[in-house]
Every structure is written in C-alpha cells, then in structure tokens.
Amino acid sequence: MANDPSHYGQQPGMAPAHMPPGVPGYGMGQDGVPGPETEHRKQEIGDILQQIMTITDQSLDEAQARSELRKHTLNCHRMKPALFQVLCEIKEKTVLSIRGAQEEEAPDPQLMRLDNMLIAEGVAGPEKGGGSSAASTASQAVSGGGPGTPENAIEHSDYRAKLAQIRQIYHTELEKYEQACSEFTTHVVNLLREQSRTRPIAPKEIDRMVSIIRRKFTAIELQLKQSTCEAVMILRSRFLDARRKRRNFSKQATEVLNEYFYSHLSNPYPSEEAKEELARKCQITVSQVSLFFIKRVVILLCSLVVLLASLSVCGQVSNWFGNKRIRYKKNIGKAQEEANLYAAKTAAAAATASNTQQSPEPPSDPGASNYNPLGSRGSSGQLSGGQGMYMSLNGENQYPTASSVGDNSQGYSGEAMPSSTSGMYDSHMGQPPQWFFHDSPCAISSI
DNA sequence: TTTCATGATTGGCT
DNA sequence: AGCCAATCATGAAA
C-alpha cells in the first residue's frame, strides 16, 4: 500500500486524507508567516501524530494478542487433539509412509569397508596393538620378516608416530561431528515439539527428521573416514617406498663387495668370517652378503656356461653383444684418446723410473694399452698384460659377434679365452676383463 | 630432477 | 639370418 503510486498523486493544495478538513498547507499562512492560528494547528498535528503512533502500537500489540489468543483458543479447543490426531494419521498414511518406505536404509557397504579398513590399520578401534601391528605388518611386508636393523626400528617408530597423529586427528574430528550432530538433532526435535502445539506433527515425522539429520552427518563422517583412509594409504606407501629404495646396496658397499669378489676370483665365495667382516664394512647383514655372492657366482657361472658351451645364443645374449659392439665403436674414439693419455702417463712414469734406475723397460704402446673402452663400468678395472682380447684399438675390431661365440677363429683364440674354466683365472693368465663380469646380462640367470 | 648405463626393440641393409 | 644404427624404457647414481 505504501508503495502504491496513487498515494503520491494527490492534487496540489488538497490536504492529506488523515488531516482534519480545513487545514490548508502545512500550518503556514497565506503569506508564510506563523501566527496564533498556526500554533493551534501545530498542536493539532502533534495530537494527530501521537494518535497515529498510538494506533500503530495498538495494532501491533493487538495483532500479537490476537495471535496469542488464537493459539490459546486453538490449544484449548476441545476438538484440537482429535483434529491433530486425524491430520497426523493422514500424514502418516500418505507422505510419511511413502517416504518411510523409500528411506529404508541398508548399512552402507562403502562405510563398512572404510570402518573395517580403519580398524585394520589401527586408526579406529582399540589403540594399543592397532597401530603397532599395522606398522609391523607394513615393515614385514618388505623385509620378509628378516632381522630388524636399527634403521628399521627408526622407520617403524616413525610410521607409528605418524599413524598415531592420523588417529588423533580422526578421533577429534569424529567427536566434533558427533557432538554437532547431537546438538543439531536436539535443537530440531525441540523445535518440532514446540511447533507440534500449533500444527499437526506426528512423532514419526520427528523421528524421520532425526534420521535425515543423522544421514547428513553420516555423509560427512564418510568423507572424514575416506580422507583418513587415504592418509593412511599415503603414509603406508611412503613407508614401503622408503624401504623399497634400500633394496640395493649403497655404492660404497657395492664397491667393497666387488673388490672382494674380484680379488678372490679363484674362490669368490667368502668364508663366514669374511662375510661378517664384509657385513660390518658395508653396514648390511651377513645374509645380504651371502645373497650378493650367491648372485654373483650364479651370474658368473651362467655366463660361462652360455659362452663356453656354445649354447644356443638367445636374444638376450644377442642383444647384449649387439649393444656391446655398437657402444664399443661409439666409445672407441673417446677410448683411444683416454688410452693415449694413460699411455703417456705410463711412459712418463717409466721414463722417470728409467732415469733413476736405468731400467731398460720400454714404455707401453698406446695402441696396446690395457685400457678398457667399454664405458665407466667396464673401465673401472685394470687389466693385466695380454688381456686386450677385444681391445685392439689401433687395428681391426675384434669384438665378438653373437655367432662367433664359441668359434675360436674369431676373437676367441685359445690364447685369449681358454676352452675350459680350469686355469682360466690362474695367476699366469691374469684376470678376465672386468666388463666380462660387470656387463654380464643381469637377467642371464633366467635363461 | 637429471644424467648415465644398459637391456630391448625396430627398421634398414647385406 | 645376422648385423648395424637409432631409439626407447628403466633403474641407479649423483
């Protein structure tokens, strides 16, 4: 009404409707100068305003009073309980029964899975044993239940600490959600009970509302449980990854083990005392040392079997030789350069020695140097004299082909490669080239 | 994350 | 079929 434009369109000079008749303008004389008449009108206007205010107040109060009166009348009406009961029954038979049927809820399988997982991981359920058992399960998953090292213990406790942290956060959040759910449910129930005095609300309706609220909070809990499970999974995978990384020995340990292996080639498998010593040096277990040497010996023997018995050369060996040839050629330029460098150094040393000792020993021929051009792994070892069976850097490439394996006419002369293992590594033969062991196909044992 | 070594694959050539 | 060269995939080391 107040916004009705028609109220703003009164004709000029007309007094407002609520004004007493005969009151022109706004209490001003024709000339605009206030006089005794004006004062009287002011008084009248003041009275009118007062009346308006009073009327407004009265109407509000009355409205309230009327509302309360209506409520009271309704509450006290003798037919009210019967009427509400009928209405509630109708509601239950129609809307509530239908909805109720739809909302028959079975236990959520996802929630059950999450709950089971949280209990299994030691996040939910009894605290003692949960976390530690899960941690030990995780640690043994990789270690194979072997003897624990101090490092394992550190990782173990680290895992447990992190799991305990997750557990604490989970329980705090869960408690928070449960409290909020409880408070909100109580609030809504009270509200509905209050409203049930003025409108028909069946007890079932209240129950239904409570279950709706619980479902909503369950959905939130589901998210919490899911994210907790994810956190545990991430923690676990990190823990396992960290352990998996230690699957290989450190470079230093490998060097120590290799050194022993190559310096005991005639009998490369160490004694118990030697194993203990190596384990101490390499900071690994004795069983790990044993495993290293078992693998080495097996690889060595398999390589020898494949190479010396002229067995059918499988694709793997073929690839190996192919790659070796190509990379040998690629590296040969660089190798030649480095060989010359090495030879120059040797020559310089020999010259110095001859100057001091007057030794007739001639300097080494750069082309016949013992340098091994097969990459860093192959070049790490020093070859004794006469071992350059494929290292003819200044001449034709005598590198073996797959088809030449076992064929002594190419590369494998009886002088360079004995036909049997016996005496192969005798002192007069020196050691085989380092690449022979270093570059043996790793998976060759699977042949 | 980058670099390196190495096994494997692919296509062309003889 | 065997070899060569280029390239990819992968694990280890720096």
Automatic annotation (TrEMBL):
GO (cellular component) term, any one: nucleus
A Pfam family that the UniProt record links to this protein: Homeobox_KN
Feature: compositional bias, Low complexity: 133-142
Segments crossing the lipid bilayer: 297-321
Domain PBC: 40-241
Keyword Nucleotide-binding: no
Recorded coiled-coil stretches: none
Keywords, sorted A to Z: DNA-binding, Homeobox, Membrane, Nucleus, Transmembrane, Transmembrane helix
Domain Homeobox, chain residue ranges per copy: 240-331
Region (Disordered), start-end ranges: 1-41, 125-154, 352-427
DNA-binding region extent: 242-332
SMART domains: HOX
Cellular localisation: Nucleus
Biased composition, class Polar residues, residue ranges: 394-424
InterPro entries, A to Z: HD, Homeodomain-like_sf, KN_HD, PBX_PBC_dom, TALE_homeobox
Keyword Transmembrane helix: yes
GO terms of molecular function: DNA binding; DNA-binding transcription factor activity
Family statement drawn from the similarity comment of this UniProt entry: Belongs to the TALE/PBX homeobox family.
Name the UniProt record assigns to this protein: Uncharacterized protein
